[in-house]
Amino acid sequence: MVRFYKMHSLGNDFMVLDAVTDDDAAPTDQIQRWAQRHEGIGFDQLLVIAPPKQPDADFHYLIYNADGSEAEQCGNGTRCVAWLARHLGLSKKTQLSWHSKGGVLQTKLLEERSPTVIETTLPVPSLDPSAVPFISNTGTNTAVLEAGGSGFEVTAVSTGNPHGVVFVDKIATIDVASLGAALSTHGAFPNQANIGFCQVVDRSFIRLRVYERGVGETRACGTGASAAVVAARSRNLVDAQVKVSLPGGKLRIRWSGPNQPITMAGGAALVFTGELELKE
């Protein structure tokens, strides 16, 4: 049996496992079955808190999409694992360092209330197409890609995982499911990508909907919100501090510019706990 924790941040929901105190709490080929919302637990990602593998980290942090594929980073997930580490007594520190496939990031407990507010500092983002990776005939991080019979100008950004940002006049009418899937798997993204459709309202406020690779449209995406701010700021469309409105709620993103890390602040909440029997 393995104990799991169902959590969410802005409706971006997770199944979280504690592999620090439970050696059996490791991902298996059952992830897709667990992820099913009608026959399983249902979640966007499975997150695993594991003992650190790097001397500069408090914990190792594993992320798996609902289809079983491994992801490099998950911004909203960092707040959930930070909350759970404190709740379970895995650490008494209010500031933690996490090492994931996408690099080292920091979490800081800001307000211990309901929902708990946690700030995450992500690694320095990159607009270098090779870092995403992004391959296009322009040789830059921006290119027009075809999807659904139309061309969409996509700005590629790495926030530890690959993103493509599309600026639109009105996100409410965008077919995120089909267009997001087509752009996510476009040949310009050899590792696929998360696709964000961004509407800039003013210099301190944007609206965003995100198609996550391996998941579909999600109610919120922390790294996607960060990528949208980076892409918008690189075009001088927004200022250093931006509120990002997603279907599941709002995030506060701060990015002062090139060679600087991104910080995001938002809530995290425990929904329920349970136990699963691991099938052979």
Could you please describe the fold and organization of this structure?
This protein has 280 residues and is mainly β. The chain folds into two domains: 2-122 and 267-276, Diaminopimelate Epimerase, Chain A, domain 1, CATH 3.10.310; 129-260, Diaminopimelate Epimerase, Chain A, domain 1 (Roll), CATH 3.10.310. The chain has helices at residues 31-35, 75-87, 176-184, 222-234, and strands spanning 2-9, 12-18, 45-50, 59-65, 70-71, 95-100, 103-111, 116-122, 142-147, 150-158, 162-167, 194-202, 205-212, 216-218, 241-246, 249-254, 262-276. Strands 1-2-3-4-6-7-8-17 form an eight-stranded mixed barrel.
Evaluate the radius of gyration.
18 Å
Major sheet size, sense and barrel closure: 8 strands, mixed, barrel
What structural class results from the helix and strand content?
Answer: mainly beta
**What is the total tally of β strands?**
17
Strand % is: 35-45%
Lateral arrangement of strands in the main beta sheet: 1-2-3-4-6-7-8-17
Element-by-element helix/strand order = EEHEEEHEEEEEEHEEEHEEE
Note the main attributes of this structure.
Diaminopimelate Epimerase, Chain A, domain 1, 280 residues, 2 domains, 8-stranded mixed barrel, mainly beta, 4 helices
